[in-house]
């Protein structure tokens, strides 16, 4: 399902950065924000995917200049600095950051490699921090806000996904800490905590042979997997003025898996 016209324009006059915008939830967020009038900077390591989403949002916005795409590996500090330099040079302001870039990986935890551990923490937690760090001065200026990709893995144990769960637990606490630190300066920071959502991330994930499916079943949705657009709806709410008194909070979008 795509949202061609949500009927409201909560982001008219605003500029939003979406990381992980080439696929899945990030792409759905980019399309949703464009449908509500936001100018955009889209970022991802997947340049082909980025080009497709860029074309879509430019069509929605009816203006080539209203959206740019900047390839960027969020785990590389120089890339992130370059992303912000290009974003501000083009749009001259920033109101919203949607931090959706992320990766997953599984292992029997006693066999987890340091390489995979560092890669997952490096993208999901350190990379997300780098984007927040560069964004903060601009968002304080516009009284803007950040929406981070937490997960139900931020809230309960996800066996065989230890590095992923640790990174997402970190994202949630980073969200709360930043929210308190910058609240008096008018910047909000919240997170979405999706459960199972149908994207490349969930379709491509390979499980170790030792997985105990009885234990694993405890973290799977009660019904069907959700769609990226259902998470984008929650992100758009948190990023909008409708959530102006919501700060340091997470919104679970998981069809009651953890209720
Ligand atoms: N799909 C789910 O069930 C689910 C559940 C909870 C949380 N999440 C989180 O939501 C976010 C989006 O996930 P998704 O399901 O849409 O996955 P996805 O794989 O479809 O999209 C993730 C995007 O991040 C990009 N990316 C990966 N590494 C990057 C890097 N170093 N720098 C910049 N971009 C990078 C990828 O190219 C991809 O476009 C992730 O943070 C994920 O952890 C997903």
Secondary-structure topology with pairs:
Layout: E1 15-19, H1 24-35, E2 39-44, H2 47-61, E3 67-71, H3 77-91, E4 96-99, H4 114-142, E5 145-149, H5 162-182, E6 188-194, H6 200-204, H7 213-216, H8 228-239, E7 250-253
Parallel strand pairs: 1-2, 1-4, 2-3, 4-5, 5-6, 6-7
Helix pairs in contact: 1-2, 1-8, 3-4, 4-5
Nicotinamide-adenine-dinucleotide (NAD) binds at residues 19-20, 22-26, 44-46, 49, 72-75, 100-103, 123, 127, 149, 151, 194, 196-197, 199-202.
Features:
single chain; binds nicotinamide-adenine-dinucleotide; Rossmann fold; 7 strands; 7-stranded parallel beta sheet; alpha/beta; 259 residues
3D structure, described in words:
It is a single chain. The chain has a 7-stranded parallel β-sheet with strand order 3-2-1-4-5-6-7, with helices on both faces. The two termini are 26 Å apart. Helix 1 packs parallel to helix 2, helix 1 crosses helix 8 and helix 4 runs parallel beside helix 5. It contains 8 helices and 7 strands. The model has no long low-confidence stretch (mean pLDDT 96). It has a single domain, classed as Rossmann fold, CATH 3.40.50. Helices cover 44% and strands 14% of the residues. The relative contact order is 0.15. The protein is of the alpha/beta class and 259 residues long. Strand 2, helix 2 and strand 3 form a beta-alpha-beta unit. The structure holds nicotinamide-adenine-dinucleotide. Nicotinamide-adenine-dinucleotide (NAD) binds next to helix 1, helix 4 and helix 6.
């Amino acid at each position: 399902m795509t949202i061609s016209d949500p009927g409201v324009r909560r982001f008219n006059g605003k500029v939003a950065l979406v990381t992980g915008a080439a696929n899945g939830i990030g792409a759905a967020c980019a399309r949703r924000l464009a449908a509500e009038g936001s100018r955009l900077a889209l970022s991802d390591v997947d340049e082909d995917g980025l080009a497709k989403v860029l074309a879509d949002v430019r069509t929605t916005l009816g203006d080539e200049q209203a959206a740019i795409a900047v390839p960027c590996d969020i785990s590389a500090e120089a890339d992130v600095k370059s992303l912000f330099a290009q974003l501000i040079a083009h749009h001259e302001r920033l109101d919203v950051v949607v931090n959706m870039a992320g990766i997953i990986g599984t292992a029997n935890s006693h066999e987890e490699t340091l390489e995979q551990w560092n890669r997952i923490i490096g993208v999901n937690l350190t990379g997300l921090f780098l984007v927040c760090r560069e964004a903060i001065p601009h968002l304080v200026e516009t009284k803007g806000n950040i929406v981070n990709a937490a997960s139900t893995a931020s809230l309960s144990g996800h066996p065989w996904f230890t590095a992923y769960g640790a990174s997402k637990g970190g994202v949630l606490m980073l969200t709360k800490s930043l929210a308190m630190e910058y609240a008096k300066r008018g910047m909000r920071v919240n997170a979405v905590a999706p459960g199972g959502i149908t994207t490349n991330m969930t379709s491509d994930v390979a499980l170790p042979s030792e997985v105990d499916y009885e234990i694993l079943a405890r973290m799977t949705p009660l019904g069907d997997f959700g769609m990226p657009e259902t998470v984008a709806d929650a992100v758009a709410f948190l990023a909008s003025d409708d959530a102006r008194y919501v700060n340091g909070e997470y919104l679970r979008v998981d069809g009651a898996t953890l209720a």
